[in-house]
Amino acid sequence: MASNKKLLLFHIDEGKAALIKSVCDNLGIRIVKIYQHQYGEKIGALAGIPIYAMANRPYRGEGFEQEMMVICGLNDKELDTFLLAYRNAQIPPVWLKAMLTPHNMDWSAAQLYEALAKEHQQMTGQSTINSIL
């Protein structure tokens, strides 16, 4: 049976994505790069959740200014192991990140990005984006 452990990567450059992939390969976590034309798709569809079908309508909005990561299928111990390996590999942080949840899998990637960016701004006082929606 194929593992459902994966990371969805949005707006992450190839070099950093390769570093993240090297950490994930050792942990059995698959990397899925998500491209701008997919930002209108539901997170559940991008994560491969069977009840979600891809809409296959190209996203025509603004691109993301910041990187975003969605972590799918990891339990608490696996998440802790991944985060420790990520830090130990000295990969620069991705500030906008979330776990896949029943609540956010109905959101489009653009909606999740907007919510995470607002949360990041509230926590840090730093504006990371202009509204894309």
Specify Rg, calculated over alpha carbons.
Answer: 14 Å
Low-confidence stretches: none
SS strand fraction: 5-15%
What's the main sheet like?
4 strands, mixed
General form: globular
Whole-number total of structural domains = 1
Secondary-structure element order, as H and E?
Answer: EHEHEHEH
Provide a count of the helices: 4
Helix amount: 25-40%
Q: Say how many strands there are.
A: 4
Look at the helices and sheets and give the structural class: alpha/beta
Query: First CA to last CA: what distance?
Result: 38 Å
Strand order of the largest sheet: 2-1-3-4
Summarize model confidence as the mean pLDDT.
91
What does this molecule look like?
The protein has 133 residues and is an alpha/beta fold. The protein has one domain. The protein has four helices and four strands; from the N terminus they run βαβαβαβα. It has helices at 14-27, 43-46, 76-88, 109-124, and strands at residues 6-10, 30-34, 68-72, 96-99. Strands 2-1-3-4 form a four-stranded mixed sheet. Helix 1 (14-27) packs across helix 3 (76-88). The protein is globular and about 35 Å long. The mean pLDDT is 91.
